[in-house]
Amino acid sequence: MINTAKINRNVEAALADRQLQRNLCSTLGKSVRMRDDSVAEVPNWEELSRYARDVKLHTLSRLDHYLAMLEEKITAQGGKVIWAETGQEAVQFIVDLARQRKIGKLVKSKSMLSEEIHLNSMLGRAQIESIETDLGEYIVQLAGETPSHLLAPALHKSQKEIADLFVRNLGMTPSGDVHEITSTARRVLREHFLSAPIGVTGVNFGVAETGTIVLVENEGNARLSVSVPQIHIALMGIEKVIPRTRDLAVFLKVLIRSATGQKMTSYISCLNGPRRPEELTGPDEFYLVLVDNGRSKILADRFLRQTLSCIRCGACQNICPVYQRIGGHAYESTYQGPIGAILTPQLTSLAAAPEHAFASSLCGACQEVCPVQIEIPHILLKLREQAQREKKTKASQLSLERLVMGGWALVMCSPRLYVVFSRWTRRLWRWVGDIRGLGRFLTPLTHWYKHREIPELAARSFRELYRSREE
Q: What's the alpha-carbon Rg for the chain, to the nearest Å?
């Protein structure tokens, strides 16, 4: 269960952290501009986005059919498909396989699903070393932290902080040069690639028609995690399947431009099972682990199931005014930002993540940039509605809220009461002097006032001004 009090402390710390604020402002602002420029180059962007949305919704409506097709094709190519109802089952498969082969280390490319099921910590308990090979993930792992962004795990860290981390943990000569930092990481990670018998990756798309697993990246670490170790294990959420190869071209275009603003990433790997006899590189064994971990529960709701359309581009995080101020760690969950606000409560429960549905301004920017047009604000409203219904069983918690909102409705529906209320509010304002001072006496309002600027009330109301004009 997510600790609400800890989230509040995280928010306070994030807002007070000047370095974090600088990192978020510079990085996210640049990401938004690059995405906008890249999308503007595609004249039929909206058409492509609608197509991607429709394909995703169609696939989710027949998910069992396409997953069965994917399994059939992969099996025919010599791979094996493992069905994991929970994250624990997925982790247990990897642990059991490593123990059977007497393997004590594996390399792992970036995978948010592996973060969701806490793969690294669980492997550590089983005395199996897991090395992150994505640079951002590796930085976060060395720091003993979790990713703060879907695409940029170390977004919250400055170049100096990363350099200091490498000096302490990797023995790097103190240097602020970015080339020295990346060269150090490359040298260390290459040794792990050559010595690890298992490579674990995520999956961007699984093409049911051909049994193809697609990996999209810029660093080449995922390709090394696949081609060098003898065993490749791909972790895939059941929602990542798409029907046909022809659909893949559209998804790659909308994903890459939304995620990084590039026309094409450095590496796109399309994998079909283990290495063939005539092939020089590739794994001897391939396992696809299909993970549910709460996704079937989301699938059951015809409206909320669109949440599973997400292709993890991170565009909603970059544009979100809430995420732009507090970063990812404040959410206390694997998925952050707008997509995390709707996905986390559904994967777990509203009771386990009570703050997430309310961590939004409902400005709608997230839906505007979503490449598969997920109705994030509307989903947030539905989750809030569900949360309120659940709270109704605890009448005492809602008594004050009902009283306040009932009184407000009464005043707003009566012109006479509205005039009286406005007059006394103005007098109270002059008496208190500052609305923040009033907040000290109204405990439920103190948190609301803390980060909001309340405008000064005019000396005379509009009605009074209008009446004086008539006189």
A: 26
